[in-house]
Amino acid sequence: MSFELTPQKLVYGGDALGYHQGRVVLVGRALPGERLEAEGVRAAKGVVHARPVRILEAASERVEPRCPYFGRCGGCQYQHLGSERQTAAKREILRETLRRTAKIEWSKEIATHPSPPWNYRNRTRMKLVASPFALGYYQFRSHRLLPVEQCPISSPLINRAIAAVWGLGRAGKVPQEIAELEFFANAADDQSVIEIYCSGSSGKLLLFGDELRQELPEIAGVTFFSQTSGESLAIAEGEAPVLQYRTNGGNFRVSAGSFFQTNRFLVDEFQALVTANEQGSRALDIFAGTGFFSLPLAQRFERVTAVENAPLSFRDLEHNAPVNLRPIRKGALEFLTAMSDEKFDFVVVDPPRAGLSKKVVRRIVEASPRRIVYVSCNPTTLAPNAAELVEAGWTLRRVRPVDMFPQTHHIEVVALLERDDGRRSRG
Q: What is the 3-state secondary structure (H, E, C) of 10-59?
């Protein structure tokens, strides 16, 4: 059954929120202030999730989406909203999340660091079905594959790689074992590696890799991984392919399967925002990856400790580390629990989307660094962690959103927390 709705605001996740018959309604691809006909799809926890049927009166901010797949593809949520309005919406969502979840009334300016809106991704992962061939993303709010032949938020080289795979797929040259592909391009966008996730292994996989490199000479290498375990499949000899990714903060070796930041336009600005104003004796980087923040910190601190548990990223971290950077392969809680009496002037944490566990926060509080930079890709998990640190004696000094993911609801947030020297934190 359809009903008329006028949404009031955008919320984290990309939906617009409105009310119908006293119930909260979340509808995707809609904008505040516009009048639309919506249709309920499901209800959960008192909230109706709906889809737009027809726009009766469009908002003035609505723009024509650039991507032909928008609305059907689950990858982007905001292509119907102009770039400046996107960043403004994300800024206000962050402010409201801090107020509602962390009880922090942030009245100061929130200066957002914008990104060029298109071709910004240096890493793209896609689903694949070999027969009948299709390469693409999941459809909006489903696990059904939507065939996609171009992705305007991915780099030009990645789009050429997508086209090359489509060519091989139409020629019937894609092995049945392949389930996903991930494309990763370097800073200059002139070289890439491809990770292929498979349900099994066969000699056809190596042949497919060779044919793909023939179609696109910019491919430096292809690595095959198990779809279930994520471990590299032993079907090729030699070292896994790597890319050299150069930023203002250092030159990084990034192997296939290692994590690296995905916005090729903002890597330098992002690094500087986290590290440029910091200096001192000892710094700690938790969830260090390949050393994205650790390397520039090593230029400003006498000694840096970088903690990373993922084996491929840690191997690159070891390779990238200068002499004053100590890489440690442990989980965050394991390291903080076993940590000696060593004290750190500065700590940076860049956790996964789920944020920090209460135990990890407690250990950071016990370590009592004067300054903490919390890098978050999810404001809804940043907020409760920030509230815990504020309760323990730190003050939130700065909040800076970095729009690493234009056209989507995602955003990176760099939050600086500082403990006044005259205050004693509660462990």
A: ECCCCCEEEEECCEEEEECCCCCCCEEEEEEEEEECCEEEEEEEEEEECC
Q: Give per-residue pLDDT as tens, 174-217.
A: 999 999 999 999 999 999 999 999 988 878 999 999 999 999 99
Indicate the pairing of strand 412-418 with strand 346-349. Answer: unpaired
Greatest distance between any 2 Cα atoms in the chain:
70
Backbone angles phi, psi at 403, to 5 degrees: -80, 75
| Residue 343: count of CB within 10 angstroms of its CB | 13
- The share of the chain scoring above pLDDT 90, in percent, equals 90
39 assigned to active site: no
Residue 396: phi, psi to the nearest 5? -75, 115
Distance separating alpha carbons of residues 180 and 192, to the nearest angstrom: 16
DSSP character for 144? Answer: S
Six token digits for residue 172: 């019937």
Active site residue: 377, 388, 391, 418, which one? 377
Of 177, 195, 308, 412, the catalytic one is: 412
The model's pTM is 0.94
What pLDDT digit, counting tens, does each position of 205-241 carry? 999 999 999 999 999 999 999 888 777 775 655 567 8
Which stretches of 217-279 are assigned E, i.e. beta strand?
219-226, 242-247, 250-255
Contact status, residue 139 vs residue 146, Cβ threshold 8 Å: yes
Q: Catalytic residue at 412? A: yes
Q: pLDDT band for 333, please (50, 70, 90 cuts).
A: very high
| CB neighbours of residue 66 within 10 Å | 13
The confidence score (pLDDT) of residue 228 equals: 80
Q: Is the dihedral of CA 226, 227, 228, 230 positive or negative?
A: positive
List, edge to edge, every strand of the sheet that includes 178-185: 145-147, 134-138, 123-129, 178-185, 192-198, 219-226
Residue 77 near residue 56, CB atoms below 8 Å: no
Q: Where is 302: in which H helix or E strand?
A: strand 301-307
